[in-house]
Design a protein that fits this description.
CATH superfamily: Nucleoside Triphosphate Pyrophosphohydrolase
CATH topology: Nucleoside Triphosphate Pyrophosphohydrolase
Radius of gyration: 17 Å
Largest sheet: 4 strands, mixed
Shape: globular
Order of helices and strands: EEEEHEEEHH
Structural class: alpha+beta
Distance between the termini: 36 Å
CATH class: Alpha Beta
Helix content: 10-25%
Oligomer: single chain
Strand content: 25-35%
CATH architecture: Alpha-Beta Complex
Number of helices: 3
Strand order of the largest sheet: 4-1-6-5
Number of strands: 7
């Protein structure tokens, strides 16, 4: 749970209980030029217009890597071997209006088959590591951008 300092006599506005965690996976796809693929969320969705790493929610009974393979196939029409993913880190947010803990797992990936083409009405763009930090991103993607930049600098 996130910590909240409560002054004597004050009322806490933190949710009493959280709903089950929502696990989300995303990929920092790195091309041969050292750029990362980002996608812009459609304007009519939550965080509309913001840039994010491609990925999505796990389906019931699905593991994180299997979900990421599926999401990249659905969103970008690319095929990625499960062994191509390198875990980079995660970011989490608790609470909010829906009282849910959201955990975003980021994986790095340098190998896939096919040319990424948006299948879900989202704009995609290859970004140099320095440009990544200039993009407006959802809150959970912001700390993960540094992990992606570090992965790019590390090379193979």
């Amino acid at each position: 749970m996130s910590e909240e300092l409560i002054q004597p006599g004050a009322v806490s506005h933190a949710p009493a209980t959280l709903l089950p965690a929502l696990l989300v996976v995303a990929a920092a796809l790195i091309d041969s030029c050292g750029r990362v693929l980002m996608q812009q969320r459609p304007a009519d969705r939550e965080h509309g217009g913001l840039w994010e790493f491609p990925g999505g929610k796990l389906e019931p009974g699905e593991g994180p890597v299997a979900a990421l393979v599926r999401e990249l196939r659905e969103e970008l029409a690319i095929e990625v071997a499960p062994t191509a993913f390198v875990p980079l880190g995660f970011a989490a947010h608790e609470g909010g209006p829906d009282r849910r803990c959201v955990v975003l797992l980021l994986y790095g990936c340098r190998e896939w088959a096919g040319e990424p083409i948006s299948q879900e009405d989202a704009t995609i763009a290859w970004c140099a590591p320095g440009r990544l930090f200039a993009l407006a991103m959802p809150p959970l993607d912001i700390p993960l951008a540094q992990l992606a930049a570090d992965f790019i600098r590390a090379g193979d």
